[in-house]
Amino acid sequence: MNSDLHNEFAVRVRGLRRTYGTGASAFEAVRGVDLDVPVGSITALLGTNGAGKTSTLEIIEGLAEPSAGSVEVLGRNPVTDRAAVRRRTGVLLQRSGFSGDLTVRETLKLWGGTLSAPRPVEEMIDLLDLRGRADTRVLSLSGGETRRVDLACTLMGGPELVVLDEPTTGLDPESRREVWALISGLREAGATVLVTTHYLDEAETLADRLEIMHAGQIVRSGTPTQIAAGHPSTISFSRLEQLPEGISGVTHRREEYGRTILQTQDLQTSLAHLLAWAGGNGVRLDSLDARSPSLESVFLAIADGRDPISPESSETELLEGSLR
Amino acid sequence: MSTATMERFSVSRTLHLARWNTVLLVRNRLALSYALVFPLVPLPMLLLGDRGSSTLGISAIGGVLLLAGLFPVFYNVLSQFVSRRDELVLKRMRTGETKDGELLAGIALPGILCALLTCAVAVPIAIAGGQMVPVNILLFALGAVLATVMFAAFAYWTAAWTRSAEAAQLTSLPVIVLASVGPFVGGLPALSENVREAISLTPGAAMTELVRVGWFGFDGFEATTSTLSFAETWGLAGQPLLVMLVWTVIALDLARRSMRWEPRA
C-alpha cells in the first residue's frame, strides 16, 4: 500500500456497508460510506439517531466486521491487525461499561494493567478531575462522572488516534467544556480525533472537519464554513403583523412560536434595510436576532430531507472535489 | 504479513484480569459463598454410614468434584460472563489491548481456583473421615484440573445462548443434568450394558470413574475392593480422561462459533 496515504490519514474507509440480520428482516445501517480522517485533525461525524454513526464507528474500532468495503486504521486492518492497532488507539463507546463494585481508582488500575504503556493512574485521576471521587465505587457515580472515568481509560494508553462516540452526552455544561478542552489538547499534542456528538455548536466550534451522515450515507463533508456556505442566514424577532414589502435579500418569511423568521442570502443588506425601516416608522423589533448560516440549520435541513443543496448539485461536487 | 497478529496470549495480562475478577468475586458475598461452601456439602455424608465405607466415599468425593465443577466454575463463570456482558464491561474491554482469550481465561480463573481449593481441602477431610488414602493422588488432581477447564468451557457455551444473568438459572440446567446423570444413575445395578456404556460417556460419569480408579483403585463398575496399583490406575484412567477432554473440545468449539460479547439489541 501507499505509505504516503498512511501518513496523511489516520482512518480511511471505502465503500463501507454494514447489514444487520439476514433475509427479509435484514437492515442495512451503513450504505456505502467513504471517510478520510486526516492525521492531527478533529473530525466530527454528525447525524440524527439511527443515521449509522455508531455502526460505522464499531467497524473502525474493530469490534465488528463490515458486510462490504474496506477500513484502514493507522494503515492497518483493525480486525486482523487488532493487537497492533489497539496499542495506538483509544476508544470511548457510546455507553460506558464498568463493574459497579470497583472504585474509580481500582477501575483505572484494572484498565491500566491491560495496556502496554499506561500513563500513571493518579495522573489520569487529576486529568479528568476525579480526585474527589477516586475511592468511590463506580456504582455510586453520576452519569457525567462515569463518563469521565471512561474517558480516562480511553486516554490512558497515550493513543495516536482517539475514537469517541458521544463523549459529552449526559455531562453538565461545565464538564462538557472541560472535555472539549481536553479534546482540543489532544490535537495540540498531535493526536487525531474522530468524534460523534449531538451538540452541533461543539462540533462547529471545535472540529476541523465535519462529516454529516443521513440514512447510512455521508451526505456532506467539509469544514464547518464550507458546509454552511450557500445556506441562508436568518433574522428573527417577536412577531410583527406589518412588514415592508421586498426587504433586499430576503428569500423566505414564516411565523413560528410567536416570532417572525426571515431567511436571507445577504444578512448585512437585509438587516440594514429592516433596521432603517423600523427606525423610520418607530417600530420596535423585540428580541431581535440575526445569525449567519449555522450548522444547525444545515443539519436540520438534511435531517428533515429538505436539504437545499442536494449532493447531486454541481456546487456540492465542486466543494467535495476540492476536499477529497 | 503482520507480526502483530502472531502475538501470543499474555499470561501476565490474564493474571492481572484474574486478580481483579477475584476482587469482584470476593465483594459479591453470595457468589463467593456459593463457590466456596457448596462443593464441600457432600463431605458430612461421610459421618452418616459405616466409617470408611467406600460406597459413601465415592459418593462424597465424587460429589465434591462434581459440585466444584458446577458451582465455582460452571455457574459462577456463566453468571459472571453474562452479567459483565450485560453491563457492557466485555465490550469495553474488547476496545483495548486485551485479547478475547485473556478476557475469557481471566473470568474463569478465580472460579477454577476456588474449585481446586475445595478439592484440595476435601482430601485431608475425607481421610480424617475414615476414607482410604488415595491410590493415585496425581490422577485425582489431574481429574480436578481437567474438570474445571471442562466446566469453564461449558459455561462459555451456555453463555452464548443465555440472554441475562437471571436467565442463567434456567439455561444452566442442561449442563447440570448432563453432568449429574452419571453420578446419580450410573451406579444403578439394573442398567443394561448399552445404557451403562452411553452413560459412561457423560462428563459426570467420567469424573466418578476417575475417583473410583484414581482414589479407590477400583477395577470396573462392580468392583468394591481396592485392587489396582498406582501404576495400573493410569491405564484405566485413560477413558474417563479422554471423555472429559472430548467434552471440553466440543464445548469450546460450540462456544467459539456462537460467542456474543454484547447484549442482544
What's the helix and strand layout?
The complex is a heterodimer of chains A (324) and B (265).
Chain A (H helix, E strand, L loop, with lengths): L2 H6 E12 L6 E12 L3 E5 L6 H8 L7 E6 L8 H6 L1 E4 L11 H9 L8 H7 L15 H14 L4 E5 L7 H16 L3 E5 L3 H7 L2 E6 L2 E6 L1 H5 L4 E6 L11 E7 L2 E6 L2 H15 L7 E3 L3 H9 L10 H10 L1
Parallel strand pairs in A: 3-7, 3-8, 5-6, 6-7
Antiparallel strand pairs in A: 1-2, 1-4, 8-9, 10-12, 10-13, 11-12
Helix pairs in contact in A: 4-5, 4-6, 5-6
Chain B lengths: L10 H17 L1 H9 L16 H33 L2 H6 L5 H29 L8 H24 L7 H4 L1 H13 L7 H7 L3 H13 L14 H29 L7
Helix pairs in contact in B: 1-5, 2-3, 3-5, 3-6, 3-8, 3-10, 5-6, 6-10, 6-11, 8-10, 10-11
Radius of gyration computed on alpha carbons of chain A: 23 Å
- Strand percentage of chain A lies at 25-35%
Query: Approximately what portion of the residues of chain B adopt beta-strand conformation?
Result: under 5%
Large-scale geometry of chain A: globular
Under CATH, the topology of the largest domain in chain A can be stated as Rossmann fold
Mean of pLDDT of chain A: 88
Give the number of domains of chain A: 2
Biggest beta-sheet profile of chain A: 6 strands, mixed
Distance between the termini of chain B: 36 Å
Order of helices and strands of chain A: HEEEHEHEHHHEHEHEEHEEEHEHH
Give the class of chain A from helix and strand content and strand pairing: alpha/beta
End-to-end Cα distance of chain A: 19 Å
**Order of the strands making up the biggest sheet of chain A:** 5-6-7-3-8-9
How many strand units of chain A?
Answer: 13
| Domain module count of chain B | 1
Helices of chain B, by number, come to 11
Uncertain spans of chain B: 1-6
Largest sheet of chain B: none
